[in-house]
Amino acid sequence: TPVSPQAFPLPSLPRKQPTVLVVCGPAQNGAIGLVCARHLRSFDYEPTIFYPKRSPDPLYRDFTTQCEKMDIPFLSYLPTEVQLINDAYNAVVDAVLGAEAEVTEGTEPCEAILATLKHIRIPIVSLDVPSGWSSESGAAGGISPAVLVSLAAPKECARRFLGRQHFVAGRFLPYDVQRKFELNPPEYPGTECVVAL
């Protein structure tokens, strides 16, 4: 059952085994991953962050500092032996590339991270656009997440998502943005910030 109120939708992750690896890329999706890790910690999960190429952006540095102040550990390297990841964590949050994939795809360290994530067996939760996917056409050689959390609204590639659960987090999307892009947001029950599609 989902945790309520949900700061981040991980209903399939049991509380008795709350370890989550949050893998962050160098751009906007990585910053969202840092915020996600902070929320997970607030709800008594045990996140660990892998953030190998830190952005010099002051806002991203602030997110990193907030995570450090919450005693969230940072890995110095991502094990290439996937069984170590499978044994140590109950889920992986994919915040590597997201919608900005066309800018950073194929560059290190993202390429090596994706090669590892493609082989893990624990559930992957992708933020916005699964890493390695095109935001338009979908999964050409990318990872296969169990859960997709679309930010603001589902991207075109979400039509090709075959995982177990799809959520959208866009309750606070301004009305002018909704009108401009002709979005039809779902109803958010009560005070929830995410809704299952």
UniProtKB/TrEMBL annotation:
Molecular-function annotations in GO: NAD(P)HX epimerase activity
GO cellular component: mitochondrion
Residue ranges constituting the YjeF N-terminal domain according to the UniProt record: 1-185
SUPFAM superfamilies: YjeF N-terminal domain-like
PROSITE patterns given in the database record: YJEF_N
Protein name (record): ApoA-I-binding protein 2
